[in-house]
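Reproducibility note. Readers wishing to regenerate the assembly model reported in the main text can use the exact inputs given here. Chain order matters: entities are listed in the order in which they were concatenated for prediction.
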Amino acid sequence: DAGITQSPRHKVTETGTPVTLRCHQTENHRYMYWYRQDPGHGLRLIHYSYGVKDTDKGEVSDGYSVSRSKTEDFLLTLESATSSQTSVYFCAIKARGNAEAFFGQGTRLTVV
Amino acid sequence: EDQVTQSPEALRLQEGESSSLNCSYTVSGLRGLFWYRQDPGKGPEFLFTLYSAGEEKEKERLKATLTKKESFLHITAPKPEDSATYLCAVQARGGSQGNLIFGKGTKLSVKP
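Running the prediction on these inputs yields the following structure tokens for the assembly.
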């Protein structure tokens, strides 16, 4: 395994509530990413980080925010969860200069 | 617009029956093409990176090749344990920091 831990692994929440997903790495990699995976779609980038406090938006960032206060942690927050955010969320990490990214085991989020 | 298309969506093989999976891409300058394997309920597992047309990479029963428009993942004499969804992704030059654009995947089933 690539030293990535996502928590929680499963979560059910109600519409309108805030939710925070955590990605923790032990590899000291510079780059961290949040993707979502939905049936009929490939993995789509939500937000990414290229260093502590350096973040940027991806393809499907609306309704999500992120924070990275430490190299090892990248948090994804759904400010007010909606049913369209029901998905499986994957965190990925990549070392500077390396091409390949390594993925965590995912968090299955259900918004009811 | 950068795009990745994988075919077929699903492939059923008998054990030992060799075949190929296709990944066609449109990208404004290819930095790298990636193959991942994903088992149900798990995160994508990195397999290969290809950088330029003509390049080939091998790992056990898998061989990945790259042309200027597509990549193939050849599976020789597959075994049931090769059953998984195979994902193709590209990274474009000048794109977001390491951002990957994924296809929707090919679900491979190998029957004994």
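We highlight two features of this model. The two ends of chain A are 32 Å apart (CA to CA). Chain A touches chain B through 23 residues (CB under 8 Å).
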